[in-house]
């Protein structure tokens, strides 16, 4: 099949197929007499493997390791499991980092008056990364309380 058909069958764009070929993640495609790339069902299966691995967040370097293990019928499942658990650890770390970003932004947005004044904690935090005060107030327990703005990490 040609590159367009391989792209459609694998879910990997033609541009990415050419890229994977250029970095030798997949073997160089065979060519027709007129120079068009030709892909076998095995190569399309490999592209699906790469697509699924990318969908799970694996880097190109880790996909190279996974492909090598996939091809190696003498592999140990412990090697594959190690790559998967390392990926899980990395994804969980990213989730924690993203949750910290959400918490910081939520705090800053909650502390912002959102009125006609130009000053507020969001831009102050982004611009300075240090503590800033404001004359904005928030309601806690029914009374106005000054809000302290800070940069959290």
TrEMBL record:
UniProt keyword annotations, A-Z: Coiled coil, Cytoplasm, DNA-binding, Transcription, Transcription regulation
Subcellular location: Cytoplasm
Stretches the record annotates as Disordered: 134-153
Residue span, HTH merR-type domain: 1-69
SMART domains: HTH_MERR
Coiled coil: 81-108
InterPro entries: CueR, DNA-bd_dom_put_sf, MerR-type_HTH_dom, MerR_fam, Tscrpt_reg_MerR_DNA-bd
Main location: cytoplasm
Protein's name according to its UniProt entry: Cu(I)-responsive transcriptional regulator
Origin species: Paracoccus spongiarum
């Amino acid at each position: 099949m040609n590159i367009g058909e391989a792209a459609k069958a694998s879910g990997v764009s033609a541009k990415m197929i050419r890229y994977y070929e250029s970095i030798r993640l997949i073997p160089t495609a065979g060519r027709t007499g007129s120079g068009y790339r030709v892909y076998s069902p095995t190569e399309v299966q490999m592209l699906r493997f790469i697509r699924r691995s990318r969908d799970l967040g694996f880097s190109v370097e880790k996909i190279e390791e996974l492909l090598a293990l996939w091809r190696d019928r003498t592999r140990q499942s412990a090697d594959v499991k190690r790559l998967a658990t390392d990926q899980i650890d990395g994804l969980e770390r990213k989730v924690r980092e993203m949750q910290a970003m959400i918490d910081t932004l939520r705090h800053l947005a909650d502390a912002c008056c959102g009125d006609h004044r130009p000053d507020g904690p969001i831009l102050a935090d982004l611009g300075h990364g240090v503590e800033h005060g404001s004359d904005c107030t928030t309601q806690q327990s029914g009374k106005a309380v000054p809000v302290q703005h800070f940069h959290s990490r």
